[in-house]
Task: inverse folding
């Protein structure tokens, strides 16, 4: 994602949505300095717009640079004085530093503007909780819910006051009595939350359903019941319907989005879940459960960098939550990788896959270990199991395409998996390069050339990719373009094999275009043809030599050999004709069907 968006912003630095997307990508990888640089460019472009200042504050919060975050949010609040979300961020920072008076002064200014503002009363309750003033906090939070029954965070904070004062059972009894006489949605929702905390999940479900019978659009009830159904009651269809309704009603709430994302993950829709959870985690970077959800989903998608960062945040959280131990276990697997001893690593990984048969990353690690050991069949089986667990696991599909194109030598399967990888990650240059190579080996030269061109635009310094592009261009008769690509191979510090191939390619294709030098290099050309009879530039040079020397029959046989080889790979006949020099008529006797016209000769 980072490379193509960076290239786009170089051309269009004013595309704010692209800049925010790039900053979020950097932030998800803990590359906060890079994220800051991207957003500072947006601040420079629009210094009086609160949005870039707000984005800068969020980056600083993620990086734990609280003082800089405060300055950015204060600047944004100065530009947008009625934005209560900014006030919330500033109050949170005040509470982290225990600056209670500063927090209360901010709220006092809000109460002066609107004394019955629910968000301000909720923030006042939050400040009182931070001070340990539980009864006063509960009163403020109840006031919040009287003013706005949809204010979801106030319910959680209210329950927190009951827990802190050991009043869960007492509060539940009081609310039961109250709601039996007067079924009030707000009181029933608080009761449902209390039941959840007491791990009485069926009664919690019943209470939430009573709430929704009174008010079907009460967002906290929709959201909480969706999570309860997904996490505790194993009713994913109902959970999805409820979570979707909540998101439709309040699409900008990251906590609501997190619930939908987690339900999607549970249903196996990892790609859609990942997109939603990345956005939630960016907006609520200090919420360990959201980080856990993001980490587990990225883990299932093989997005190991994102998974590691999110799981580290979840595992390092000060508070306990249900996924904390699982965060540590998955993180351990991601950070261990394949050890120096392949046999030991494989035995451990085999045991892991038996213990956790539905863990795609364990299967991927096992496949990588097998592949490293040279056990290609076993590697393919492990990768196929990972893809079976997650059909949208691009890394697994790509590994299968690579194996079948290489040691397993199954072009049909290689091409099928390569096409699937392309569908899953159409903007990934690495996958485009792989698919291009597989397409070339399968004889689909036009598609190969287009894919490799696309990949090379984004990865301009990759010798292997440039070499593949050169051969693809050469096969289509684009000799000058092929030579340019091979020349770039040499300028990008290739390994010895690529360097030797590029030098040989450039030397022999140059000879084909220069008859005088070709005659002088006759011995070298013949030596190359004898040592590598499949190397087409050498065959082409030999055919030109034979033509110059009047060996028409032998030249024709060489050209026929090349044509036969490329026909077998589904090459269009006009490609070879583009490559042929002046000798043409002996070959054109054997035009294949569909021969295309030419101006050469």
Result:
């Amino acid at each position: 994602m980072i490379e193509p968006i960076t290239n786009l912003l170089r051309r269009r630095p004013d595309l704010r949505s692209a800049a925010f997307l790039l900053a979020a990508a950097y932030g998800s990888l803990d590359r906060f300095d890079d994220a800051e640089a991207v957003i500072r460019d947006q601040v420079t472009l629009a210094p009086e717009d609160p949005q870039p200042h707000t984005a800068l504050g969020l980056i600083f919060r993620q990086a734990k640079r609280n003082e800089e975050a405060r300055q950015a949010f204060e600047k944004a609040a100065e530009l947008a004085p009625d934005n209560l979300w900014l006030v919330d961020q500033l109050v949170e920072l005040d509470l982290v530093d225990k600056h209670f008076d500063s927090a209360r002064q901010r709220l006092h200014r809000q109460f002066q503007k609107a004394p019955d503002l629910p968000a301000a009363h909720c923030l006042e309750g939050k400040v009182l909780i931070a001070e340990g003033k539980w009864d006063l906090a509960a009163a403020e939070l109840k006031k919040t819910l009287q003013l706005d029954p949809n204010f979801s965070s106030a319910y959680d904070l209210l329950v927190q006051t009951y827990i802190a004062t050991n009043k869960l059972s007492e509060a539940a009894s009081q609310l039961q009595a109250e709601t039996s006489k007067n079924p009030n949605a707000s009181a029933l929702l608080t009761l449902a939350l209390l039941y959840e905390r007491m791990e009485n999940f069926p009664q919690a479900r019943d209470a939430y359903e009573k709430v929704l019978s009174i008010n079907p659009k009460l967002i906290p009830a929709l959201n909480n019941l969706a999570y309860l159904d997904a996490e505790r009651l194993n009713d994913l269809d109902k959970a999805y319907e409820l979570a979707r309704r909540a998101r439709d009603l309040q699409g900008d709430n990251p906590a609501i989005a997190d619930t939908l994302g987690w339900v999607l993950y549970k249903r196996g829709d990892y790609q859609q879940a990942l997109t939603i959870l990345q956005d939630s985690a960016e907006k609520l970077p200090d919420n360990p459960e959201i980080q856990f959800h993001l980490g587990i989903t990225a883990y299932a998608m093989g997005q190991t960098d994102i998974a590691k960062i999110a799981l580290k945040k979840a595992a390092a959280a000060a508070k306990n939550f249900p996924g904390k131990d699982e965060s540590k276990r998955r993180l351990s697997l991601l950070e261990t990788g394949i050890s120096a001893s392949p046999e030991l690593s494989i035995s451990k990984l085999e045991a892991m896959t038996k213990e956790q048969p539905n863990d795609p990353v364990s299967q991927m690690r096992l496949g990588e270990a097998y592949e490293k050991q040279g056990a290609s069949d076993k590697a393919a089986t492990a990768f196929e199991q990972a893809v079976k667990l997650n059909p949208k696991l691009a890394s697994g599909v790509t590994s299968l395409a690579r194996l079948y194109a290489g040691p397993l030598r199954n072009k049909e399967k290689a091409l099928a998996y390569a096409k699937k990888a392309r569908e899953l990650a159409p903007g990934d240059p690495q996958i485009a390069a792989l698919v291009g190579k597989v397409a070339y080996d399968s004889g689909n030269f036009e598609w190969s050339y287009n894919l490799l061109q696309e990949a090379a635009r984004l990865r301009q310094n990759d010798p292997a990719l440039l070499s593949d592009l050169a051969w693809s261009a050469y096969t289509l008769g684009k000799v000058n373009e092929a030579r340019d690509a091979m020349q770039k191979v040499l300028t990008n510090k290739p390994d010895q094999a690529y360097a030797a191939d590029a030098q040989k390619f450039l030397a022999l294709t140059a000879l084909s275009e220069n008859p005088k030098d070709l005659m002088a290099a006759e011995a070298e050309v013949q030596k190359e043809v004898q040592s590598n009879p499949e190397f087409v530039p050498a065959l082409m040079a030999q055919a030109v030599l034979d033509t110059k020397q009047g060996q028409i029959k032998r030249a024709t046989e060489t050209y026929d050999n090349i044509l036969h080889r490329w026909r077998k790979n589904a090459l269009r006949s006009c490609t070879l004709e583009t490559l042929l020099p002046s000798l043409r008529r002996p070959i054109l006797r054997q035009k294949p069907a569909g021969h295309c016209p030419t101006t050469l000769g």
